[in-house]
Hints:
Elements: H1 4-14, H2 19-26, H3 30-38, H4 45-55, H5 59-64, H6 96-114
Amino acid sequence: MQSIYERIEELIATRKMTKKAFCQELGISTGNFGDWKRGVSVPSAKKLIEIAQYFDVSLDWLMTGKERGAEGIQEQRNGYHPGAGQPDVRLEQLTEKEQAFIREYLEFAEYRKKKGKA
Length: 118
């Protein structure tokens, strides 16, 4: 299974840009980028959103390497409540760092919701 870093590398190569140019374009220090490569850290939720937007890819794909199809989208009149707060069993397929990122992202989304920005 490809890591988030490997998917980012793939996007950089597809765009035919250098890693240095990518880092400059998105305001990422080369030290942080190197840490992502070595697995010392992973991009923050905010940075992954920026990267997904920059390359026009889904956040699902960037994080997991898989696209979520339309059948995976659940809409309800009273709001979106997948699994009623229960963790998705697919999390077990992710690395510990990817799971930590998802937890951070969920906390960020909840914060935005409370601030009325969601």
